[in-house]
């Protein structure tokens, strides 16, 4: 039996608001538990081995090194965060073996501030400048002028103007048949529908639209996926995790 590795990484050390750390295991449980009793996809999820990192430190460099090391050893096809910084070491490990790799991101923020340290808000600046991977961020709506100029941005306003189908075509054109990684920051969803995120930005996308877009992107066959930034400490009732279900269902179908 071939098992795929899912890295479940509860780290939020560079984030202002704690809670994405606890979001990692909660989202993994929702991904794994959501298929109970649904036949074939239930057995498919059993082929995924969740691997956690129990590091007793807040040092982001140590977490990044560990993620990179495990990613090199096991080529995980899924990372469940935790904060967005974690995408960097995953891509760092993947990029070596995948020439032409591209990165498609859903996010309220571009996370491409030209800041010298690796953080959740500078991760794609370093992906662009250090790893030299093309990055497209869809759904961004916060301080767009401050992104690394190499970052391709499709704003939330453009998404509303053109709709999920047209934006899906733009993503496909950007990928252009190359291998690609798909990174989902759940704060791309409007805080009216999903308030349980560390840095909510008004004017976001509807969950149904995000699920529709993710459906098309996942159908194109990303080599790996991450889903990050769900804040479990801001969701004591679990209402937001339940609201995420249409999106988690798409990820679950991809996993099967
Ligand atoms: Mn974000």
Provide an overview of this structure.
This protein is of the alpha/beta class and 256 residues long. Helices cover 40% and strands 16% of the residues. The protein is built from nine helices and eight strands. The protein has helices spanning 20-33, 40-45, 60-74, 87-97, 123-129, 156-175, 207-219, 239-243, 245-255, and strands spanning 4-9, 48-52, 78-81, 102-106, 135-140, 152-155, 180-185, 224-228. The chain has an eight-stranded parallel beta sheet with strand order 2-1-3-8-7-4-5-6, with helices on both faces. Strand 7 (180-185), helix 7 (207-219) and strand 8 form a beta-alpha-beta unit. Helix 4 (87-97) runs parallel beside helix 5, helix 6 packs parallel to helix 7 (207-219) and helix 7 (207-219) runs parallel beside helix 9 (245-255). The protein is globular, with a radius of gyration of 16 Å. Residues 35-40 have low confidence and may be disordered. Bound molecules: manganese (II) ion. Residues 107-109, 185, 187, 229 line the site of manganese (II) ion (MN).
Helix content: 25-40%
Q: Radius of gyration over alpha carbons?
A: 16 Å
Poorly predicted runs are: 35-40
Could you report the average pLDDT, rounded to the nearest whole number?
Answer: 95
| Total DSSP E strands | 8
Shape: globular
Number of helices: 9
Order of helices and strands: EHHEHEHEHEEHEHEHH
Give the strand line-up of the largest sheet: 2-1-3-8-7-4-5-6
**Hey, roughly how much beta strand do the residues contain?**
15-25%
The CA-CA distance between the termini, in Å, is 14 Å
**Strand-pairing-aware structural class:** alpha/beta
Hetero compounds: manganese (II) ion
